[in-house]
NitT/TauT family transport system substrate-binding protein (Thalassobacillus cyri), 333 residues
Amino acid sequence: MKRWLSLFSVVVLGLLLTACGSSDSASGNSNGDKIVIGYFPNINHVAGMVAEEKELYEKTLPDGTEVEYKYFPDGSAFMTALETGEIQGGLVGPGPAMNHYMSGAEINIVAAGSTGGTVIMARNGSGIDSPEQLKNTTFASPRVGCTHDVQFEALMMREYGLKSDRLKGEMKHVTGKPATYSQLFASKRIDVATVPEPWASKIEEEGHGKVLIDTDEVAFGETLPAAVFVTSKELVENDSELVQNMVDAHKEATTFIQDNPEEAKEIAANKIKDITDQELSKSVIDSSWERIDFTYNVKLEDLQSFANASYELEFLKEKPDLKGLVDTTFIEE
């Protein structure tokens, strides 16, 4: 079983973007236009880091295209940037992409970035040894309704009949950045957390928490993309060649990760340190990597199942229909 990682308090459950900005910023022809790619500084987004380090977009985009990268702390900030044309595409959690699509945003998911990486952990010393013991406990997720929150709450409700206080249930919900969970465990402010990598491995290394439910048993843990590559539907319709250029670079980055895991780990560790000023040990990187599968393949049915769970948990007001969200044209051989 492979594991995945997410570094920053992110992957949120608000979906993604409307049309990309002006035709000047998105045309991507050879007249010196600029393309901005966005991603998060976490291990689920290593494809973005590898593409930047190896200058893969510079190789696939038309000559004369200036390439810049912008880093985001959460899905909401990414979606706003995509909607306003500040970026032309990049990696974001599936939750924000789906929610924004359901709200009318004209976007397309054109590839996946990775799967896995969500772990449910219990505080050491809490006396919690099984999910059945989570009644009347306090759990943390990065944000209300984010991807990791839905994975946790869907599992609790479906398998153990437990709900958060948001649904008048038996578990108290608080939010916070995953990077702070180790301290929250140490100070006994939370009992349980739904933790994206690399923070699960870091908590284990520091001895403040233990894995209660691993990636393969978390809801949608092995099938749901932890990151998806998104762009505007306007760009897909008006400049499909440019979108193909971007997806080709993303596919090349993903293949590089699969073929060169040790070099990709080094790139990830260095990039994360540069962006966040936080250094991860090799053991944390290695452990996180085992929970993640890097792939650009994406299936609409996997996203639809997740969206249905979001509706079941009342994060979405209307029953979701994601038809038209995913366009696999650009990843097909």
Summary: Residues 118-217 form a domain with the D-Maltodextrin-Binding Protein; domain 2 fold (CATH 3.40.190.10). The chain has 13 helices and eleven strands. The chain has two domains: 23-117+223-330, 118-217. Residues 1-32 have pLDDT under 50 and may be disordered.
